[in-house]
Amino acid sequence: MKFTYYGHACFSVQIAGKNILFDPFITGNELAKHIDVNQVKADYILISHGHADHVADAPAIARNTQATIVSNYEIVSWFGDKHGYPKGHPMNHGGGWNFNFGKVKYVNAVHSSVLPDGTYGGNPGGFLLQSAEGNFYYAGDTALTWDMKLIPIFAGLQFAVLPIGNNFTMGIDDAVIASEFIECETIIGVHYDTFGYIKIDHQQAIQKFAERGRQLLLPKIGQTIEV
Ligand code: NI
Ligand code: MN
Predict the structure, then answer these.
(1) Which domain does 88 fall in, by range?
(2) Cα(186)–Cα(202) distance, rounded to whole angstroms?
(3) Ligand with an atom nearest the CA of residue 198
(4) Cβ contacts of residue 82 below 8 Å, gap of 6+?
(5) Is position 227 within any domain?
(6) What are the average pLDDT values for consecutive 10-residue runs of the chain, which has 227 residues?
(7) Which pLDDT belongs to residue 49?
(8) In a domain, 141, yes or no
(9) Measured on CA atoms in the order 115, 19, 70, 127, is the torsion positive or negative?
(10) Which of 160, 123, 149, 131 lies closest to 22 in space, CA to CA?
């Protein structure tokens, strides 16, 4: 599966010829100045929760690409009500849906969720994505949670995308435990370095995962990797 990192918690995967973009936050990210948001492709935009560092560029990218917004009911409704962009698929926790690229399940995250204008953003979540090309889990912004033990019951994972920046989400030590809860050996780290609160030591992070037999991948912003 092709995975492209756009900085912070924004990335896209290509499955079945579709571009699935997650948590678009590019123009507000000092580290992603070299990314042209108008060139970002999306057939679907999956949004984990309502915070600005996950939705800021979603209205513009949605209008550019005519992508379908997939998120919880409150966030999908906000795109319709506030942005006049009704092309969305609302979900809620524990629910799954078969799209034309694979199955998406909206799963628990322990965090908060309010939209940039103060609108209630529902409860925050993550996504489990299952497809003919493989399965992966994106945790969203979350603490380490016992609920992660449900993920390997639902599906075996090819890789997982976990926040590792600490302060607002799990840090490295808890993300290592999460990788064990979800029984996944290949982890892509996100939600680090963007702000002062979440700067990490890359080599130390890679080392801590390696000590538990896991590979932590930290692609560069704009880089596409095969996972
Ligand atoms: Ni957040
Ligand atoms: Mn965040």
Answers:
(1) 2-219
(2) 16
(3) 2
(4) 115, 117, 119
(5) no
(6) 98 97 98 98 98 98 98 98 97 98 98 98 98 98 98 98 98 98 98 97 98 98 98
(7) 98
(8) yes
(9) negative
(10) 160
- Residue 142 C-alpha to ligand 2 middle, in angstroms? 9
In the reported structure, the alpha carbon of residue 132 is separated from the centroid of ligand 1 by a whole-number distance in angstroms of 30
Q: Whose atoms come closest to the Cα of 125: which ligand?
A: 1
**What pLDDT does residue 211 have?**
98
> What pLDDT is attached to residue 161?
99
Residue 37: which CATH number?
A: 3.60.15.10
pLDDT attached to residue 87: 98
Q: What is the 3-state secondary structure (H, E, C) of 141-209?
A: CCCCCHHHHHHHHHCCCCEEEEECECCCCCEHHHHHHHHHHCCCCEEEEECCCCCHHHCCCHHHHHHHH
pLDDT in tens, 92-124: 999 999 999 999 999 999 999 999 999 999 999
Distance 207 CA to ligand 1 centre (A): 26
The Å distance, Cα 26 to ligand 2 centre, comes to 13
Please tell me the total count of domains within the chain.
Answer: 1
Q: How many angstroms separate the alpha carbon of residue 160 from the centre of ligand 1?
A: 18
Q: State in Å: Cα 169 to ligand 2 middle.
A: 8
- Whether pTM > 0.85 for this model: the answer is yes
